[in-house]
């Protein structure tokens, strides 16, 4: 038995009113000037302005960097870092979904460690803590607001780099479902399927332990009961609240048990074609688990039960098949495209995408290590 380490921010606020409490906590911390890292739609929704005002009322200055693109790039990190230095910010606040959180982590890490964000690709490559990061989450979700993962696309190679580093963990995470109610149905569906992928990959991971199992199973049940409701009616605040919890639980699971080949492969699609992360995961999830069922059928049968499927009396393989069918049904119900063809992915790229997927740190804990030909086959099956 090896030692399990459990990482997450030391303080995590979740539920109605979490944002207001977070601003109060920040005002007690002695920080002077925040760099708010966000994107233009969230500025247009008024979120960044409201946060800036709330901070100003407590004598904290804030400069807004709204140049984050979905699938944030090395160029976004450099631009945000330049503003942080120019304004002499002493802490960072990310406001948004996974893209602003990851960009903010990269800015805060390079601000204190120097060099270039490319230097930190891999596991625990940095020497020093990053600048303090408060992560205010608006999707449900990547759970990047609690994780030690930071995913940045190299704008020259179009490869998504996985920076897995305990130093990028935020000091405070905020999940206020009031900020999530404006998510359109397609974003709710994509981010919810990302959270489901986190929970399933963590549950079948070779690094799973009883704590991550408990988090993953509860997340899967909450998602199966609430995602379609939140997609059908974005104003259903009970479903939004439950999805906020579900994505946080899924994050606690994968932050400590890590992920698998769904993410390793989805990162390549996101980097190459600039596709939404959650949609790539949702399309690949059943196909990777079908491949994994040769080693993880018993675990997948348990996932089926958490999804509300009847598995009593079935063999492990039959339970795993039921899990995969239930995932496909949920994806269809929330409007996820049927395959990679619909996303305009090109078959002739599969060999290169597979080669790059095999270098992604997320694949290390997949229950079966695939060959290059296996990965190409999974891409083909998902086409
Ligand atoms: N670091 C991690 O642990 C981790 C885990 C999974 C995924 N990721 C990364 O996160 C990124 C994806 O993040 P995401 O799926 O949260 O989306 P995102 O942050 O890329 O946002 C997508 C779009 O949704 C908009 N949006 C966000 N919140 C909204 C709201 N409440 N109302 C209306 N619009 C809103 C944004 O403005 C943006 O236009 C990918 O780059 C992925 O690789 C990181
Ligand atoms: Fe993800």
From TrEMBL:
<dbReference type="InterPro" id="IPR039697">
    <property type="entry name" value="Alcohol_dehydrogenase_Fe"/>
</dbReference>
<keyword id="KW-0520">NAD</keyword>
<dbReference type="Pfam" id="PF25137">
    <property type="entry name" value="ADH_Fe_C"/>
</dbReference>
<dbReference type="GO" id="GO:0046872">
    <property type="term" value="F:metal ion binding"/>
</dbReference>
<protein>
    <submittedName>
        <fullName>L-threonine dehydrogenase</fullName>
        <ecNumber>1.1.1.103</ecNumber>
    </submittedName>
</protein>
<comment type="similarity">
    <text>Belongs to the iron-containing alcohol dehydrogenase family.</text>
</comment>
<feature type="domain" description="Alcohol dehydrogenase iron-type/glycerol dehydrogenase GldA">
    <location>
        <begin position="10"/>
        <end position="177"/>
    </location>
</feature>
<dbReference type="GO" id="GO:0008743">
    <property type="term" value="F:L-threonine 3-dehydrogenase activity"/>
</dbReference>
<dbReference type="Pfam" id="PF00465">
    <property type="entry name" value="Fe-ADH"/>
</dbReference>
<dbReference type="InterPro" id="IPR001670">
    <property type="entry name" value="ADH_Fe/GldA"/>
</dbReference>
<feature type="domain" description="Fe-containing alcohol dehydrogenase-like C-terminal">
    <location>
        <begin position="188"/>
        <end position="383"/>
    </location>
</feature>
<dbReference type="GO" id="GO:0004022">
    <property type="term" value="F:alcohol dehydrogenase (NAD+) activity"/>
</dbReference>
<dbReference type="InterPro" id="IPR056798">
    <property type="entry name" value="ADH_Fe_C"/>
</dbReference>
<keyword id="KW-0560">Oxidoreductase</keyword>
<dbReference type="InterPro" id="IPR018211">
    <property type="entry name" value="ADH_Fe_CS"/>
</dbReference>
